[in-house]
Write a structure and sequence with these properties.
Length: 131
């Protein structure tokens, strides 16, 4: 029986890593409550989103998560908690996460970049520029 199941979740504050747990970053969502995560101990693991989080906490690619390691399967783990970007920055400040960890901010660019898409304002071949 894993020890992470008996740890109460806190509604405020940050749950720290206990024995048998590891911080990870989501690489790919696989569907059916599963995801692939790169743990900060250097191991890539297949993770299962436990029922308490499914359909309540939406996990996306690049998110920082806390996983519970399995005693009997090193390549698999269970997602215990998802950290929002502010909590992840706090973990990085407390030296819980390595400096190389990239935090997914989902910021909106104000430079109207449109990702390289150009729109033309001409209708019927006419241009808005001076003739």
């Amino acid at each position: 029986i894993s020890s992470w199941n008996s740890i109460p979740s806190k509604s405020s504050g940050i749950n720290a890593e206990y024995g048998g747990q590891e911080y990870a970053q989501v690489l790919k969502l696989l569907g059916n409550g599963r995801l692939e995560a790169q743990c900060f101990d250097g191991v890539k693991r297949l993770c299962h989103i436990r029922g308490k989080l499914r359909k309540k906490v939406w996990i996306n690619q690049g998110d920082i998560i806390l996983i519970g390691l399995r005693d009997y399967q090193d390549s698999k783990a269970d997602v215990i908690q998802k950290y929002n970007p502010d909590e992840a920055r706090n973990l990085k400040a407390y030296k819980e996460l390595p400096e190389t960890a990239k935090i997914n901010d989902a910021q909106i660019d104000d430079d109207n970049d449109l990702d390289g898409i150009e729109f033309q304002d001409d209708i019927d071949g006419e241009s808005d520029e001076a003739d």
